[in-house]
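step=encode ok
step=design start
structure_in=
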């Protein structure tokens, strides 16, 4: 297929590897005789009536991109500008595109001669890319490259989104440092990581570092009480004390905020009002999760006359624009290269996401990623019945059902909490779970047998 000009747009939050994709895609396009233009700040200017190609875009040449794959950040910058009709996002139904914004993007792309578009971003950018592709009615070839350190796009066969590997690597190093500091000072750290709708980053960091406790939103039902989270953390601290350690690190995904539904409870802990969104739900995105948890745990220990040294720490922005690891550099180079193959191949359907499975190109239609209820891009969440979660869970220090059933252990825990064994069991019954709870005893063996036979 003959293409004349490729446009590249980066949307959403930064992630290590963006520049590697831009570099590989631009070089391959230029080598194929295709001109390349990069648009600044995502869809922000493309969707604006004030779009000016001389100020809001740049011509990409091999000489200017050939070594940017080493670098974090994005030479085209990025933004969270969305093409979503914001009115539809406030209703219970499916979201819809803002036809005026989408139409403006299509017209602005046409005005500069772009006939192929490469979008780089997460779920919101993939959603906007789908809107643009549909609105162009075939006049514009489009490929999306999945990017997010949250790892929550629905890629096939557990393929990671780019940037996740680098964020996990750096996050693990930072948590390891906090673990050393906590052991040295005898304090606990409450470390909040990014992960708006899923706990992939938190769980993988906690597993790699061997953090005593990791909490992810997938472990809690929507509308859970704040008390449920505090019970698990307090129980883990008490158990670790019984085992002879006064220190520890708790890794928490920020998405925990979005499953908590008791506004009055949060306001009591914070001592102030929590604002509500348009639907009347608490605007928990404005609540500092680690700080709120810290206040809640400190209040509990203070009530029993046992002050505890806690430090809240947010682990997030420093991961997003870091230089990519060799894995992400090579992974993103492959994604950039293959995105051009998809754009040039007349047999490839329009509007696909580039993915690699076992080292081979495996494109996914953007329309196959739709949640039919919301019309948004589906979110990939952690399967808490999976073997991967079971391994992570096995190495945590947290209350188990077996602890409450063992009279000796129960007595030690109750003594540490200054409670009777009966009262301790009543308070922490829900927070304690069996290591393999929710996972049939023979399910791992059965899955292994299926893999071997298949």
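sequence_out=
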């Amino acid at each position: 297929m003959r293409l004349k000009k490729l446009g590249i747009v980066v949307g959403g939050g930064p992630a290590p590897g963006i520049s590697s994709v831009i570099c590989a895609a631009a070089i391959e396009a230029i080598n194929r005789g295709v001109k390349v233009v990069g648009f600044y700040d995502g869809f922000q200017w493309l969707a604006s009536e004030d779009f000016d190609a001389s100020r809001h875009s740049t011509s990409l040449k091999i000489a200017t991109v050939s070594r940017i794959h080493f670098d974090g950040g994005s030479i085209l910058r990025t933004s969270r500008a969305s093409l979503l009709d914001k009115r539809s996002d406030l209703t219970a139904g499916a979201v819809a595109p803002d036809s005026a914004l989408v139409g403006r993007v299509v017209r602005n792309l046409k005005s500069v001669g772009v006939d192929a578009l490469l979008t780089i971003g997460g779920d919101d950018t993939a959603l906007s890319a789908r809107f643009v592709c549909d609105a162009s009615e075939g006049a514009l070839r489009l490929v999306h490259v999945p990017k997010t350190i949250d790892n929550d796009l629905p890629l096939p066969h557990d393929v990671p989104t780019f940037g996740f590997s680098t964020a996990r690597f750096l996050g693990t190093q930072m948590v390891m440092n906090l673990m050393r500091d906590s052991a040295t000072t005898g304090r606990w750290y409450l470390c909040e990581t990014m992960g708006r709708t899923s706990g992939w980053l938190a769980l993988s960091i906690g597993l790699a570092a061997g953090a005593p406790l990791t909490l992810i939103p997938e472990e809690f039902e929507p509308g859970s009480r704040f008390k449920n989270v505090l019970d698990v953390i307090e129980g883990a601290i008490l158990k670790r004390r019984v085992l002879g350690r006064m220190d520890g690190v708790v890794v928490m995904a920020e998405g925990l905020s979005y499953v908590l539904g008791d506004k009055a409870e949060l306001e009591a802990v914070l001592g102030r009002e929590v604002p509500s969104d348009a639907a009347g739900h608490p605007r928990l995105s404005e609540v500092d999760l680690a700080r709120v948890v810290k206040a809640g745990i400190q209040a509990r220990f203070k009530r029993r006359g046992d002050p505890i040294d806690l430090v809240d720490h947010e682990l997030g922005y420093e991961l997003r624009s870091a230089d990519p690891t060799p894995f992400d550099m090579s992974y993103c180079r492959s994604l950039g290269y293959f995105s051009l193959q998809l754009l040039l191949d007349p047999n490839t359907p329009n509007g696909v996401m580039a993915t690699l499975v076992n080292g081979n190109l495996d494109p996914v239609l953007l329309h196959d990623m739709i949640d039919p209820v919301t019309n948004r891009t589906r979110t990939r969440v952690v399967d808490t019945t999976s073997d991967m979660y079971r391994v992570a869970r096995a190495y945590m220090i947290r209350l188990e059902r077996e602890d409450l059933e063992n009279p000796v252990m129960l007595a030690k825990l109750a003594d540490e909490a200054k409670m009777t064994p009966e009262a301790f069991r009543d308070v922490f019954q829900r927070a304690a779970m069996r290591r393999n709870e929710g996972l049939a005893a023979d399910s791992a063996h059965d899955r292994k047998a299926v893999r071997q036979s298949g």
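step=design ok
step=annotate ok -> The CA atoms of residues 3 and 179 lie 53 Å apart.
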